[in-house]
Each structure stands twice: as C-alpha cells, then as structure tokens.
Amino acid sequence: MKSHDKPRLLVVRLMLAAIKQIEVDERIELDDDRIIAVLDKMTKQRRESIEHFSKASRDDLIAIEEFELQIIREYLPQALSEAEINTLIEQSIEATGAASIKDMGKVIGRLRPQLQGRADMSMVSQLIKSRLVPS
Known about the structure:
Layout: H1 6-26, H2 32-55, H3 59-74, H4 82-96, H5 104-115, H6 121-131
C-alpha cells in the first residue's frame, strides 16, 4: 500500500477475499495448510485461464493472469524441483505398495500434504501414471 503498487495490491486483496469468503462460509479460521490450498487453487485457476486465453489469442488477458499468478506464487512455499518430486513419488509408491493405476489414489493421497502448493498436482498425476502399470 505504501509503495502505491495498485495492481499488486489488487491481487493481494483478491487473495484475502478468497480466504475470508471461506472463513465466513464455513465459520472457521483457516490454518496455514488450508490457506495454501486456497492459494494453490487460485494458481490452478490462473493457469487454466492462461491456457484458454492463449487458444483465443487474447494476449492482453494472458498478461493480466500471468501477473496475478506471479504475485500469488510469492505467497506459496518454494516450489519443489522435478527431481525432488520424482523422489517423493518413488517413496510414496514403495510405501503404499502401488502396482497399477487402480492404486493411484493411495499414492496421491499420501503425496498431497507434502506437495500442496509446492507442485502442480496435474503434472504430479501424469508422473505417477507414467510409473504405474495400466490395469
């Protein structure tokens, strides 16, 4: 606010409004894990919007979404590298004894708390599918 960066302030207010909306709707105070989940959902929405806008050749809207995505990511934990994600996936597959695609839910259920807000879960899902045998 003091730096008079209005576009950034609008994004921060957008994040606070999303958090406050859930708190009011559910009559609870969100903990850090739940706030990260809300911000992670917001990043997913921005990525999907960017994809749709790029198909429609709307560069003006893509720029806005990318800016918002950049600001939201600043408030999330540092992203994991692909090597770290692969290591966690391998450990989770071993721990759950997953052998086929049918066991994918077990693997994702174990990984979600570790990866929430730190990795793109759709990418993680693809990596898990590539390691598990189709049923």
